[in-house]
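pipeline: protein-struct stage 2 | run 1193 | Coproporphyrin III ferrochelatase
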Amino acid sequence: MNTTAPIDALILMSFGGPEAPEEVVPFLRNVTAGRGIPEERLEEVGEHYFGFGGKSPINDQNKALLAALRGELDRRGIETPLIWGNRNWDPYLTDEVRKLAQDGATQFLSIDTSAYSSYSSCRQYREDFAKTIDTLQDEGLTVSIDKIRQFYNHPGYADACADCLHQGLADFRSKVGRIDSAKHRILFVTHSIPNVMQDASEVTTNGYRAQHEELIDHLMGRIDEADRVPSELVYCSRSGSPEVPWLEPDVNDRMTELAEEGVTGVVLVPIGFISDHMEVAFDLDTEAKETAEELGLDFTRVDTVGTHDAFVRGLVDLVEERAAQLRGEGVDAPALPGTKALVPGSGACSIDCCRGRIERATYPNWAIAN
Ligand SMILES: CC1=C(CCC(=O)O)c2cc3nc(cc4[nH]c(cc5[nH]c(cc1n2)c(C)c5CCC(=O)O)c(CCC(=O)O)c4C)C(CCC(=O)O)=C3C
Ligand SMILES: [Fe+2]
């Protein structure tokens, strides 16, 4: 069936980013409103954006993903409109949903650009849906917004990550000759989050960190045995006050320790990011690369999935999966062997997941139906 019924329209929902220097400070104010991030950290992050001409790479990457998704929908004969809306910058979710709602669309399905469970990567998007729904309701427009499941263990994302890793290892091999367990490490990198956010992510799912570990086990199992050097999960982009604990080790700290232990080369695999947005462009390609240079480490940063075919097809599969669930059809929800698909309402990513300090309205409020 070449339809997404009962869904009238699809949304690519992302973070948003500034396009010009004068947008950087207002953007950061939007991001951090009420989130207690110290002024020094904001100035530091502002400098990262100014260093790139005040333009975040994220918008162009989302436009490319939008075009790739449209292409895949068209290939499948799915005519459902697809729009793009952000949390923190123009085009804003509410404005984009309003346009289609005025044309009569009521049921929306969102593709969020984050793979794992946590407040920042799942629940906060559902808070955004609730705000949009409320705002439009006040204007006399009734809409609902559902979302696809977190996709870290969907075969499409995993296949794309595996392909990127394969290519990255080839690049590394061209620098070092032979990949060697005694000298080389594979460091999977993701966004650090506060420990309390990690804990909240474990209430109804296996949680943020364990989800990364599942994907890592899978990816390591797929690389040639000769390349299977020790690997670990490290973090970047820590924010917040220094006295608040966040997930560690930081990628730079860990590279420093490894160099002291005699490691001479690292392959960084940014599985926490679907495209090369600012955390990748600055925290990895600028800062971590400099650390590697100072330490004399051979260094390869593996590609993010971006618009990789397998990833794009996987996202459209997830759209079709969710639409079928909403039609009440029994559907196959594929997941990596030994892992569980986070089907909304099945006990994962439910109303109870990833609660923060402050309780805000979310939508949808899936019931836990085990
Ligand atoms: C888990 C996670 C993802 C991945 C999931 C997803 O993709 O959604 C993500 C994505 C992103 N984060 C981004 C940017 C920022 N994140 C910040 C702050 C924070 N992120 C956090 C977590 C995450 N963030 C957290 C716990 C905070 C602390 C404040 C809070 O508790 O909310 C700040 C404030 C300054 C600072 O503190 O660094 C900025 C500017 C951009 C845009 C980049 C670009 O422009 O290319 C993207 C894609
Ligand atoms: Fe962030």
